[in-house]
Amino acid sequence: MAEFSVTKLGTKNEQKIFYLVLDGLGGIPFPGVGKTALEAARKPNIDALLPHATCGLFDPVEPGITPGSGPGHLGLFGYDPRKYQIGRGVLSALGVDFELGPDDVAARFNFCTLDKNRKITDRRAGRIPTETNVRLIKMLIEQVRLPGSAQLFLKTEAEHRGLFVVRGKGLGGNVSDTDPQKVGALPLDPVARDEQSKATAGLARDFVQQAEKILAGEDKANGVLLRGFDKFPDIPKMHELFPLKCGAVATYPMYRGVARLVGMEVLPPPADLPATFELAAAQRDNFDYLFIHVKYTDKAGEDGNFEWKVRVIEEVDALLPKLLAARPDVLVITGDHSTPAALKAHSWHPVPGLLYAPATARPDNLKSFDESHCRCGGFGRMPLRMLMQLALAHALKLEKFGA
Amino acid sequence: MAEFSVTKLGTKNEQKIFYLVLDGLGGIPFPGVGKTALEAARKPNIDALLPHATCGLFDPVEPGITPGSGPGHLGLFGYDPRKYQIGRGVLSALGVDFELGPDDVAARFNFCTLDKNRKITDRRAGRIPTETNVRLIKMLIEQVRLPGSAQLFLKTEAEHRGLFVVRGKGLGGNVSDTDPQKVGALPLDPVARDEQSKATAGLARDFVQQAEKILAGEDKANGVLLRGFDKFPDIPKMHELFPLKCGAVATYPMYRGVARLVGMEVLPPPADLPATFELAAAQRDNFDYLFIHVKYTDKAGEDGNFEWKVRVIEEVDALLPKLLAARPDVLVITGDHSTPAALKAHSWHPVPGLLYAPATARPDNLKSFDESHCRCGGFGRMPLRMLMQLALAHALKLEKFGA
After folding, report:
1. Number of domains in chain A
2. Do residues B188 and B119 both lie within one domain?
């Protein structure tokens, strides 16, 4: 007897699915305002979709679990993020087009600010300009000398962020972060979690010590924090799972990286939000599925800047007609997780999601697309990965299961 | 440590559960009307249950998955339809009381209309009368000659539908459909998906070729389409899983078949809807659980006949007092899946469900039993199979789990 598999039900057709992802979209009421950013924003174009849309609340991983960007996006793309895990370092590598090989271990690194007792005063080194990052990485590459035959690669991502890769036969990827994720603490020692990763941890320790000496004269970026050590994961491609040719429109390296990881064709990075929407609309006929990523809702949330988050949502709303002009058969608007400005961080709160499908939706006619109204949405509450199979269903891309 | 199992919690008592299944009940707003059939129907008797009922939306398989009738009913009966799969042919065999043996492979067949280039112009041969079906099957049985020692059995179901069985040592059941599920296409060649099924595919091919010659003089039914090849599946009986003596009241062969498959006692087919309700009420004391099947909501949906679907719901509502007079302790009203008239097909939309239990329900006091109100029902949204354990619970047929 055949096993159940959504993949087996897939059927190709001409219908177009747009996935508009506002990173970190969900929130909680902001103190003093009493509303979430989505509740406070003026968004007439999004709300005009509601008579032809079904809404709900979606858990990227499980209730109560705060996802990183990797698990959040895997959930968006229909994967179970509890099954497929990607290190942050691997995402960073993908985002800067670094081709990871089987002997490579990658980690994300941040420049940070350390005080004279080596305590962290800024985990992002005041968000130094990307040009400073480039200059400092050049210094590090010239001066760091790792022991043995291992090779070191460092790449600028943007601002304070970079990619760290060590290449060497038999290096394991199971090493703990040196980033304690809080200010006032000392950087942590990288610890191997298995035998094969001991050499990797040693190399990471060497790198951190040498980097602090080399950067000692810097005003802001006088330290480095490493996190998300990992090797390249074995994940099936989206087009192997679903009857879709997939394209990605994203500006930020990490999201371009995760899109590439699942096999999407990643389009050239648009310069700004209007260019993002124009590119997506122009590419309508070239793909069955377009992932369109908006970063600044998350960034505003992480900075605790509620007003900014509201403004980004309003800007997206104003640009929405550009996407609608391309006549998607199914348009999903959601996030990869919540980033409440009140918490200045990713959170576990389920993310609101809207699926617009004029021909096939059972509309729930909510008055507004936001956290409180989505509670009574027609999708109820479900794992975020289910939204992908709902999008396929509404685009009539899944055959009936069973007789 | 013992594994969790609902079966282990079962306890017998005198309480009666009625499962009133309106096939294909769920819908989406019909164009021009702006309501679903359930929203448009006048149904005072059903709505009068709401002060003693809890409602919700139920996914027969998973969100986004359109179920066939087999998976839909397995979900209704508390089975995980992703785990237990039944070929359409097996359902057909059960429905016409054909006793499948271990050497048998069954498939559903439809008479269809082919044009002079063998393209399908009607997959249902204009829904020929059952008498024509009987006459043609007699012709086929007399004239088809399969090679070797394999035996052929053909049985009329109703209208254009029939059962095809080949019996022979070692025949495999893993053969692809010849029904392309669309008009304008040629019938497909039956293809074996494993080594043991090659002989079966050959026999099916022979049958199709000979049948087309024999039927060449027919006006409408001049071809046959085969689908859902399968052998008898190994599924636990309902009375092995739950503390229930189960009976089924259904007119249509396939639903009688699926009831028999899960071990229900299938009562003689009632002639019409009033007889269906009378029979169920009269059988109250003979069973713990009665499955009562109403076909025409689905048929109306598949025909795109919104008005008819509304009328069937209103007819069921008018007959409801007959069932209530039998004082069920728990009455469930739901469907096996949605069949929106707007889509003229089964769909993935979750099906509304109502559980009336005057002594044990936590009522949600909805204003109307329909898709939009069920969104905010007390059961929320869950897999359809959970409704079975909720019915058992409300009938006090499940012991406490754990100390």
Report:
1. 2
2. yes
Residue B345 in this model has a pLDDT that exceeds 60: yes
Any domain includes A382: yes
- What token pair was written down for B63? 């969100």
Give the SS3 label for residue A310. Answer: helix
CA–CA min distance A5, chain B (Å): 8
Chain A residue numbers touching B62 (CB-CB < 8 A): 6, 386, 389
User: Do A224 and A164 reside in the same domain of the chain?
Assistant: yes
Q: Note whether A378 contacts B88, CB cutoff 8 Å.
A: no
Question: Which residue among B27, B68, B85 sits closest to A1, beta carbon to beta carbon?
Answer: B85
What is the residue-wise DSSP string for A235-275? Answer: ---HHHHSS--EEEE-SSHHHHHHHHHTTPEEPPPPSSHHH
Q: What is the CA angle B53-B58-B62, rounded to 5?
A: 165
The number of C-alpha atoms within 13 Å of B325 and in the hemisphere containing its C-beta is 12
CA angle B245, B361, B76 (to 5 degrees): 45
Q: State which residue of chain B sits closest to A402, comparing Cα positions.
A: B68
What whole-number distance in Å separates Cα of residue A316 and Cα of residue A310?
10
Among B230, B254, B274, give the residue marking a domain's end: B230
Give the orientation angle of helix A306-324 with respect to helix A273-282, to 10 degrees: 30
**Cβ-based neighbours of B20, under 8 Å, separated by 6 or more:** B292, B294, B316, B323, B331, B332, B333, B334
b vs e for A226-256, b when ≥16 Cβ sit within 10 Å of the residue's Cβ?
bbbbbbbeebeebbebbbbebbbbbbbbbbb
Give me the percent of chain A exceeding a pLDDT of 70: 100
A14 & A142 share domain: no
Q: Cβ separation of B65 and A382 shorter than 8 Å?
A: no
- A350: β partners: none
Among B33, B20, B122, which Cα is nearest to B305's? Answer: B33
Q: Which residues of B touch A361 (CB under 8 A)?
A: 28
- Among all chains, which residue has been given the structure tokens 């590598």? A93
Residues A136, A197 within the same domain: yes
B226 in any annotated domain: yes
ipTM value for the complex? 0.84
Determine how many CB atoms are found less than 10 A away from the CB of residue B311.
16
The pair of three-digit structure tokens given for residue B358, joined into one six-digit string: 């005057």
Closest residue by Cα to residue A374 from A60, A22, A39, A32: A39
Q: What is the mean pLDDT of chain B?
A: 95
Q: CA-nearest residue of chain B to A394?
A: B64
Residue that terminates a domain, selected from B230, B259, B288 = B230
Partnered with residue B332 across adjacent β-strands are B19, B355
Rounded to whole angstroms, how far apart are CA atoms B221 and B379? Answer: 47
What pairs with residue A175 in β-bridges? Answer: A192
pLDDT tens sequence across A3-16: 799 999 999 999 99
What residue numbers bound the domain in which A174 lies? 91-230
- Give CA–CA dist A386/A360, Å, rounded: 17
Q: pTM for the whole thing? A: 0.85
**A11 inside 8 A of chain B by CB:** no
> Which residue, chain included where needed, has tokens 């939309």?
B349
| CB contact at 8 A, B230 and B87 | yes
Based on the fold, state whether residues A265 and A357 are members of the same structural domain: yes
Q: Does residue B399 lie within any of the structural domains?
A: no
Name which of B164, B139, B165, B167 is nearest B151 in CA terms. B167
The distance of Cα B357 from the centroid of its chain, to the nearest Å, equals 25
Report pLDDT for B1. 60
Contact status of A1 with chain B (Cβ, < 8 Å):
yes
Claim to verify: residue A95 and residue A159 sit in the same structural domain: yes
3-state helix, strand, coil in chain B (%, to 5): 35, 20, 45
CB A259 within 8 A of CB A252: no
Quick one: B79 and B218 in the same domain?
A: no
